């Protein structure tokens, strides 16, 4: 059950209806995959929508270019096309990529630019190892269940990071839940559990440094 919850959290949340938030129409016959109702990325409120369609990536790109109108930016990355546009107090991004033969994915994100200015330099509410860089901080609320995924990078050894983060989780009433999911010289993954809360901590070596991915879930 816990692995299902963590897998679902890695998917994008839906683009929720709201009078002020701009919305883009999905391609005809596309499938939407709603997961959450409230999302914050690096402290910035976002509405997100994952769209899956059998249309080719080029057709999906034409659809969203038409939806955005002539005034938008376009950037071609190795594995995807990214379209973006500022619209009032919001910033829209559409990331389009072939996902599998006959399947194209479009991830539509709308960020509140006003809140982005206030989110700069906000405290994490969690003591992280010294000299750690925050690569991503995503929060989601779904039916009262609050999820958070924090991605960090530093140059500390894996045991040092494990000890520091495990200590923080212990202060929040969470202890290791069973043996590690993975324990090698290049990576370590451990589940934690407490009263009404769960966590998964993954620490691994990457690019000459160490990457930490901490996902926590608080149940209502």
Look at the structure and give the CATH class of the largest domain. Answer: Alpha Beta
Number of domains: 2
Low-confidence stretches: 1-19
Report strand %. Answer: over 45%
Order of helices and strands: HEEEHEEEEHEEHEEEEE
End-to-end Cα distance: 16 Å
Percent of residues in helices: 10-25%
The chain-level structural class is alpha+beta
Number of separate strands: 14
At the third CATH level, what is the topology name of the largest domain? TATA-Binding Protein
Could you describe the largest sheet, including whether it forms a barrel? 14 strands, antiparallel
Radius of gyration, CA atoms, in whole angstroms? 19 Å
* Tally of helical segments: 4
Compact description:
The protein is of the alpha+beta class and 220 residues long.
Key structural traits:
220 residues; alpha+beta; TATA-Binding Protein; 14-stranded antiparallel beta sheet; 4 helices; 14 strands; 19% helix; elongated; disordered N terminus
Record the SSE blueprint.
Layout: H1 2-9, E1 31-32, E2 38-41, E3 44-53, H2 57-68, E4 73-76, E5 81-87, E6 90-100, E7 103-112, H3 113-119, E8 133-142, E9 145-154, H4 158-171, E10 175-176, E11 182-183, E12 187-194, E13 197-206, E14 209-218
Antiparallel strand pairs: 1-3, 2-3, 2-8, 3-7, 4-5, 5-6, 6-7, 8-9, 9-14, 10-12, 11-12, 12-13, 13-14
Walk me through the structure:
This protein is α+β, with helices and mostly antiparallel strands. The protein folds into 2 domains: 2-118, TATA-Binding Protein, CATH 3.30.310; 123-218, no CATH class. 19% of the residues lie in helices and 45% in strands. It has 4 helices and 14 strands. Strands 1, 2, 3, 4, 5, 6, 7, 8, 9, 10, 11, 12, 13 and 14 form a 14-stranded antiparallel beta sheet that branches. β5 and β6 form a beta hairpin. The protein is elongated and about 50 Å long. The two termini are 16 Å apart.
């Amino acid at each position: 059950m816990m692995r299902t919850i963590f897998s679902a959290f890695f998917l994008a949340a839906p683009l929720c209806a709201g009078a002020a938030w701009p919305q883009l129409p999905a391609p005809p016959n596309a499938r939407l995959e709603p997961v959450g109702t409230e999302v914050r990325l690096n402290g910035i409120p976002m509405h997100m929508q994952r769209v899956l369609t059998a249309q080719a990536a080029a057709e999906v790109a034409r659809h969203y270019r038409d939806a955005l109108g002539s005034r938008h930016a376009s950037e071609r990355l190795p594995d995807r096309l990214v379209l973006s546009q500022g619209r009032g107090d919001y910033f829209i991004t559409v990331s389009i990529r072939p996902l599998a033969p006959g399947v194209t994915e479009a991830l539509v994100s709308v960020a509140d630019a006003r809140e982005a200015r206030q989110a700069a330099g906000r405290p994490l509410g969690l003591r992280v190892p010294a000299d750690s860089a925050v690569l991503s901080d995503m929060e989601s609320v779904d039916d009262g269940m609050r999820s958070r995924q924090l991605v960090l990078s530093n140059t500390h050894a894996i045991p040092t990071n494990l000890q520091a983060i495990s200590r923080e989780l212990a202060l929040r009433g969470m202890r290791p839940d069973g043996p590690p999911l993975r324990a090698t010289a290049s990576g370590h993954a451990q589940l934690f559990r407490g009263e009404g809360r769960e966590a998964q901590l993954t620490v691994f070596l990457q690019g000459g440094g160490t990457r930490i991915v901490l996902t926590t879930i608080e149940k209502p």
